[in-house]
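User: quick one, fold this
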Amino acid sequence: MIARRPWWNRYTGLRNRGMNPQGFHVSQLKFYVVLIPLSVLMLLPVVYIISSAFKPPDELFAFPPRLLVTNPTLDNFRDLFSRLSTSGVPITRYLFNSIMITAITVAASILVSSTAAYALSKKRFRLKQALFAINTVALMFVPVAVTIPRFLVIENLNLLDSFLVHILPVLALPVGVFLLKQFVDGIPDEVIEAAQIDGASDWRLYWRIIMPMIKPAIATIAILTFQAAWNNAEISTLYINTESQRTLAFYLTTLTSATTTANAVAGQGIAAAAALIMFLPNLIIFIVLQRQVMSTMSRSGLK
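Assistant:
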């Protein structure tokens, strides 16, 4: 008797595959002629951020500005860490808060967005279209437009000056639900029905079929949520009064602003070093997940 493979192994074979060609052909040269200059242009801000962190004051204030540093120095980082050591709250506390908040937010956001996308795509219930329409409309609102309503909601829920206030406002990104639903829509209904015939529960179907098949979109949502949580200094400013519950982004922002006001020359160097420290985690997570992100954009139909 031939042993049957588990049903989840049979159906996950339908996972999306990458769309980049495996080899090189001379016909691709026309694409490189256009894309390589564009890539260089898009890399210039990254190069400038990294270079500015190591520039001495005379190069930071040079006119016209220079893209690359000529005489690199670590003085900006020394000044930054000397300022950090004078804080009443240890810098490790701000760093711990940022790491913990970002990790919880990314995990919770993926869970909430993926389950909502699965329900909106493959389940039948009343108000399904209306709920998705509301989510789509929410894409049009910029964060500043909902600042006052968000504050009123948080105040009425008694979440001011609490750890949860960092997580709940960015828990479910409308773009995350929208993008994941587009991916779930691409999974054939026959796959879902076959798994249900094999006895799969909703939870196993979600975990064994849906999640593996939308990995590229999940990676994209992870990056978007990471950036929203890691770089967010607004929540610590508006909703937090206890210093020990604030994040690294808030502390570095206030530190560089105060230093720049007191000493414009030293403040610019510290601001450049702080900008690089905040930027590096975003760059690292994108490099790690960039292949999945490219696959998402090639198949999602988004422009």
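User: anything notable?
Assistant: Residues 49-61+73-299 form a domain with the MetI-like fold fold (CATH 1.10.3720.10).
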